[in-house]
Amino acid sequence: MPASRLTRQDKRQANRARILRAAREVFGQRGYHGATIEQIADEAGLSNGAVYYNFANKEDLFIALLEQWRTELIHDLAGALPRPSGAEPGGSFQDEISHVIASLKRSREWRLLLFDFVTYAARNPAFRARFAAGRQKFKRDLGAAIAERIAAHHLQPVAPPGQLVVLVTALVNGLAIEELTEPDGIPDDLLATALMALMNPGQQPGTGKPAPS
Q: Which of 4, 20, 99, 183 would you call most buried, defined as having the most Cβ atoms within 10 angstroms of its Cβ?
């Protein structure tokens, strides 16, 4: 039976995916300012026109890559955190933290891109507005996941979910900076210890038991 022919929309979606993969590679290697549409098109094996057909300009492509990164991160976190079912969770919160940390271990390329996103947004008000709008949605999704785990495990965090989102993202991003410049200087369990201290400070690290008063 002959294979079905791709529609114009199918081809456009396939090309868009190729362009985003190429953009991730080129932006990761060269940074925002060093990358060009020509380099991205060459990496994707497409023409410059194909890139502009899918994205208005380099900034539009950059923001699409950021949204892809945020979507991947929330998807990975959702996979690491079981949905609450009304019963007590099957595993310990520390086990869940380990799965979450594994999902947060983005590649060095993604970490470099993250800081490109932030520095570019800080210098460009129009881009900053688009950046902030997507970030607010990301924070809402992350806050909902945190609130679910607080309820499921009866935790007593140091702050409400909305503030925990800010603390957690600042902690993860800060350690990412340290790992970029000093990759062997961060203990493997440091992030887990810090997250436990934020989410359930009354629990002894590594034991799952309340700390002695």
A: 20
Note whether 101 and 171 are within 8 A (CB).
Answer: no
Contact 153, 93 (CB under 8 A): yes
Residue 56's CB: how many other CB atoms inside 10 A? 9
Radius of gyration of the chain (CA): 20
Local structure of residue 5 (DSSP, 8 states): P
The mean of the pLDDT values for the chain is: 83
Each residue's pLDDT tens digit, 110-134 = 788 888 888 888 999 988 988 888 8
Q: Which long-range contacts (CB under 8 A, 24 or more apart) does 48-57 make?
A: 50/15, 50/19, 51/19, 53/12, 53/15, 54/12, 54/15, 54/16, 54/19, 55/19
Domain spans of the chain, in order of start: 6-55, 59-199
pLDDT score at 177: 85
- Residues 114, 93: Cα–Cα separation, whole Å: 28
Fold held by 59-199:
Tetracycline Repressor; domain 2 (1.10.357)
Model pTM?
Answer: 0.74
Q: Fold for domain 6-55?
A: Arc Repressor Mutant, subunit A (1.10.10)
**Mean pLDDT to the nearest integer, 8-26:** 92
